[in-house]
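Lecture 7 notes: from sequence to structure.

We start with a single chain of 860 residues. Read the sequence below before looking at the structure.
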Amino acid sequence: MSRNWASGISSALESISLKKSARRHESAETMIRLLRNLPISVKAFSASAVLLICIGALGTQASIFLSNLKTDLKSLSDSSLSKQQQVLDIAKGAIDTHIDVFRYVAWASTGVKPATLDTLEGQFRQESAKVAASLGDLAARADLTEPERVAVTEAATKWQRYVDAAHDTVEISATDPALGTVMLGGIDDEYTRVGFDIQTILSLVTMETRSNAQNLFSQAGLNQRFIVLVGLAALLFGVGVTFMMSHSIVAPIQAVTKALQAVSVGGAADVKLTDRSDEIGQMWRAISLFRRKLESDNQLLGAREQELTTQNLRFDAALNNMSQGLVMFDRDNRVTVANRHYMEMYRLSADLVRPGCSLRQLLEARQAVGTFGENIESYLARHAAEGIIARKTPELPDGRVISIVNTRMSDGGWVSTHKDVTEQCRAEQRIAHMAGHDALTGLPNRLLFREGMEQALAAPDRDNSVAVLSIDLDCFKEVNDTHGHPAGDALLRGVADRLRRCVGDGMVARLGGDEFAMIRVGAQSADDVVLLAERILKTLGEPMKVEGHDIRVGSSIGIAIAPAHGDDPDELLKHADTALYRAKADGRRTFRLFEPEMNIQALARRSLEADLRGALDRGEFELHYQPFVNVLSNQVTGFEALIRWNHRDKGLIPPADFIPLAEETGLINPIGDWVLRQACMDAADWPAGLQIAVNLSPVQLRNRALPRLVILALAAARLDPKRLELEITETALLKDDEALLASLHHLRALGVRIAMDDFGTGYSSLKYLRSFPFDKIKIDRSFVNELGIRLDSAAIVRAVAELGRSLAMTTTAEGVETEAQLAHLKHEGCTEVQGYLFSRPRPAGELASLISTLEKRLAA
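Now the structure, written as tokens:
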């Protein structure tokens, strides 16, 4: 009985256990079903929220760690590092002070000027006081440790003993350099003691800084490990949550995807997801509905497919040509298809252009609206006799140009495509015009001008001569440099308009840049051409209003006349260019008729230009120097650099023969840059008091990079800017160029001296002396040569000297060759003289002996 009772209890317990397990299983299924039926947005939001919480916790911990690290670093920077920097500054000041003491004793022993020693002594006293003050500031810091404070106090005491000993040494060295040198040993021992204490302070401060940094590094390591552990835990937790959410989303979506693939190939979907109430369940129900609808639509489409096949055959050709007008005819020349573009192109109505419309009716309708200009009967007869013309490009009565392409079809009909190519034809005409004309001025270009010359020279009824005029604007580059390229372009257009008015029945062209050319046909004589050239000079010489500025440019003209100067176009234009070069060489703003001997001169000029372009690379330029002499102190004050061209075949070529050519071709810029750099390098080897004067061309002055070039030359030579003097002429200032004056002020601010060269030979306007504070005025040699001969020359020299004295400017007379001239110049008050009386220009290698000779001669 007891056994039965135990068996009953066991059965009851087992039953209870099974019931509990069933309830737990039922609860789990309920939770899974609830989770599955949640909207996807809720599931995604939950997973994102969990991840954001983990990330936020990790970011908060990182922010706290970085804030603590920032505070510790600031504390380290404000205390230890600033204290260490203060000690380093004291050490540097002590070194500088000790060096100044040694320098003072050394200089006193070598006889340096007292003024220089006084300056050095003041510097020593200032630096020693600064070190003492810095030691006091360091001792006053509240963050010093006790060993540091003791070391600072001892250093301050020893520094004061060192300063006292150094003061005594300096004072004794001023009167007894030998004794001062002996005393250096004592103060060096004092400095060694101070240096040892400063090094001790630096070691203590460095040890403290290193200790603080080590503590900070240890704390950072602990925080780093903590953040890694927290981040790893957050990552694992987030991955788990994400996996759970994705499992409830991804697997059903994969099942739906497979079902869609089966539906797309006409199969059946065997996935059952209709029990889900979330978006996936809704999607599956929609797919099922779509499948049933698709089966129904397929049945309808099959019925309409046969009906659409016939229509597609007719419309395929039209659809392939929708960018053009299209009309299709059958074998009886009746319209079967016409698109809307065709009707719009010829202004036809859709009621007329419909299937069955005949070709005659179509042409009559077009003629009625003005889009067909031929005779209809003739057109139809030609069409019947010759068949269709494959391609044609007729011009309509309204001016439009239509490209028509006709194509036969296999059923005997034909299709015609129509394209409006009016703009294309006009563009081709414009391109053809651009090929022969200048885009800026609209004038014929060089190619079309040559064709015009060929036609004029080959004209069978030509009774008179053909003149070719080569026209070049004077100083056009200055307009671009001063007012900018837009103003230069506007000026060229204005010049082109004026030349059109001058040429009459002839032809004018722009060959490039500021170069123009003109053909005059039917001139009775050379006088007619001369009158034309004079009219051009007068017209182009008048002011022209450009962007609010009155700009005046002149021109130079070269003339060649056929047949006297040749009948070949290239030869004739070449002779006109040769005459143009002569006009420029003769002063510009004039004209010249070609003469045979000009060819020889032109060849010589071109040969010289070719040699000049390679002279700099071949090292053929060299500098000679002519001295300046101060008439009051009888001392050499400097030299003027004068360029010489030692040609490899022709020997020395005078500057007057190649400098104008260099300015005209633009070679003056690289040549002038070389002169400036070489002169500065040579002057760097002279005694410190001697000046170096370098001439600048007006072309160089217009270069905006001039200040930079001067600075580079001075830096390369390590030359004091105060020793450099730049000479410019009055003509360089005629344009009142603000940029030029700004460059000169920039150079003068650096310490470079500016001199006005050849004063008195130009306008001699006092405006230039007022617009810029020159340091020197140079009196031209033409006035010096006539001293004692013409009274007005003496008066001019006297006036210029007085002017220079009033404006605190040096006056230098050039070309002094006799003692009498020197006496006159001294009497009139000139400051400096220069000329063969003292020396001809000499190479740099002879200057040392020249200076010695002149000093002895002037001292006698």
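The chain has 26 helices and 22 strands. Keep this in mind for problem set 3.
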